[in-house]
Amino acid sequence: MAILKPSDFIRIIWRSFYIQAAWNSERMLSLGFCFCLVPFIKKAFSKSEDRAIFLERNLQFFNTHPYMASWIMGATIRLEEQSIEEARFDTKQMDRFKKRMSESLAAIGDQLFWGKLKPIAAMLGLALALYNKVLGFCVFLFLYNLPHFYMRITGLLRGYKLGFDLAKVVSLSKYKEIFESLDKFAALSTGVLITLLGFSDFIASFPEGAAFLAGLLLMLILLKLNVSVPVALIVLILGSTVVGGLIY
Amino acid sequence: MEMDVLLFCLMGGIVSADTDSAWQSMVSQPLVSCSIAGILMGDLVLGSVVGMLLQLPYLAEMPVGGARVSLGNMGVFISAGLAVKLNQIFPGQTNLILLFTVLYGVALSRLTIPFQNWSRRFNLVLLRKADLAAEHGNVAKISRLNYLGVLNSLFFGILFSAIFFFLGKYIMQSAIISFPFKISLPFLKPTLLGAGLGTMFWLFLKRTTFRYTLIGTVMSAVALLIVWIY
User: Which of A43, A133, A151, B84 lies at a CB distance of 3.0 to 4.6 Å from B41, suitable for a disulfide?
Assistant: First the structure.
């Protein structure tokens, strides 16, 4: 029997935006995870002893990608509902499931959002910002947040629907094709951006074009040498200043 | 404090919170936050130029797992606000201002790492209190503790923005007045934009995807040519 109303799901989705608020190196997202499930805890457990058992179990180490955590939240709610109905439900099995899923979802989320969608949205936003500043950042926010919000909302609902079956649906290998397509699209966007920047007001002469290419190659080399971004940028800024000063 | 600087510092709080503790809607990304800094300070174009120059390079640092990465967002946001403010004080020195503020912003991004450690220690204190609340099944306290984490991040952002905005303004005003050379800096913007694309190459360029970069370059060149002809 479903314990939660649709309004409770909305509350959980809202709370999921704060899942990383108390992120710590010891148990990472555990406090945020419990925080998100507070609407469920209030409905499912009337006695404070039962709430204490649930909280102590879920305050253990938990880490995943923040957007993908909603899948596990949904599945956890479904499994907890089952455990309330069938008093003999194995909670250890549930904890093992949570741990395994958190690892898979972290790998998917990190690659999908940090590794692919963020750079793609940023490149397209930057390309548009060359012509219209406000449109540029609006498009960036829209392109990134559409899949972001979609993942948070559908993750919770599908996780709730699937329960243990979530493991069959979500796996890194199933996302491989999406990642490959996004890689190709990112490479295409990089090409488009090269042309647009090349013909922009930022690069108005041949020496500036040469500086652009030098910046590209040097950054690539510095990143391959594992130099941190701030250090690489300082090297490039000072280098461009000195060379520009010598030439002009 | 002037109203624009006050709003700028409050926005600094939002940038800090959005970066890792709440929402993560990318309002904190340089392309967005610097444009907002520009709007708040009175020059959207200069603010967004700083954001455009520094948006792509920081994408190389990903906050995967518990990795401590330099928070480009905060440093770049402060540098955009400073650039606009200083440009209003010294209108003919835009290039020099851009050089100083961008360098300052990049250095600040490195400085955020110790602050992240402090924030994580504060969150550990919250966790200990959450353990005690959990023993009593006190869910209301769990909620309050989590929201305290957001407040901590907001407060850090406001304080960090205020301190380093005024410090930067004080240092750079003196530096600009006493700077002995006339400087044009023709290569600063192209080099930083090139560095951004270098980062994208580092992330995405593989043997299998190289042809897509070529296709993108040629396609957009043809499109631009058609637009130029007509």
Answer: B84
- Subunit contact B22:A20, Cβ cutoff 8 A: yes
Q: Do both B122 and B196 map to the same domain? A: no
- Residue A198 and residue A240: Cα distance in Å, rounded? 18
ipTM for this prediction: 0.94
**Which alpha helices (H) appear in A86-117, and where do they start and end?**
91-109
Q: What is the pLDDT of residues A156-190, one digit of tens each?
A: 999 999 999 999 888 888 899 999 999 999 999 99
| In a shared domain, residues B199 and B162 | no
What contacts B78, CB < 8 A, 6 or more positions away? Answer: B12, B104, B105, B108, B160, B161, B164, B165, B168
Q: What is the pLDDT of residue A154?
A: 96
Q: Are residues B112 and B225 in the same domain?
A: no
Same domain, B195 and B150: no
Per the structure, the count of domains in chain B is 2
Q: At CA B138, angle to CA B136 and CA B143, rounded to 5?
A: 150
> How far is the C-alpha of A163 from the C-alpha of A78, rounded, in Å?
6
Lowest mean pLDDT among A107-111, A116-120, B69-73, B159-163: B69-73
Give helix B72-89 / helix B94-135 axis angle, nearest 10°: 140
Give the gap in angstroms from C-alpha B105 to the nearest C-alpha of chain A.
9
